[in-house]
Amino acid sequence: MKKSAITVMPEYYDKYILPVDDINVVDALKKYDVSMFDKATLARIGINVYEPGKWTVKDIIQHVIDAERVFSYRALRFARNDKTALPGFEENEYAVNTNVAKRSLDDLLSEFETVRRSTIFLYKNFTDEMLQRAGVASGRDISVLAIGFIIAGHALHHSKVIKERYYNISIKN
Questions:
Q1: Which domains does the chain have, with CATH numbers?
Q2: Which end is more exposed in the chain, N or C (fewer Cβ atoms within 10 Å of the end residue's Cβ)?
Q3: Strand intervals (E) in the chain
Q4: How far is it, in rounded angstroms, from Cα 48 to Cα 34?
């Protein structure tokens, strides 16, 4: 199903969903994936940040991975018609409780690719009826289809953040 078929979506997620093309959700997951991140540039940036207190590019990649896992879990629950309201998650708490500093960039990108492949398999096997099912997460109604586009758009959003805010620092340093 395409993005235009989304019927239940909180406005909060517009910033992730709207930039994604109006294509099939599986195609969107394939398009907005690890290939958006230029490994050589990320490696040059290293642990440099554009402003004190901001995440490193490895922190951002880990965040994208963690968020995708959380969103995929929500999609699975709602697709299976689980009506249990699901809590939010605090991204900053997740970020300080990783071992990302000890991981290689290659390892993180490989994990992202693996998680995305898993998400694609999940979405490939949802029926149209399952995609239109909705549940409550973080106190908001949201459909399985919307979650798929949030996953794609979230990765796109962070690839843009890296390009806009981090690419220049690799030139300075």
A1: 3-47+55-172 (1.20.120.450)
A2: C
A3: 134-137, 140-143
A4: 21
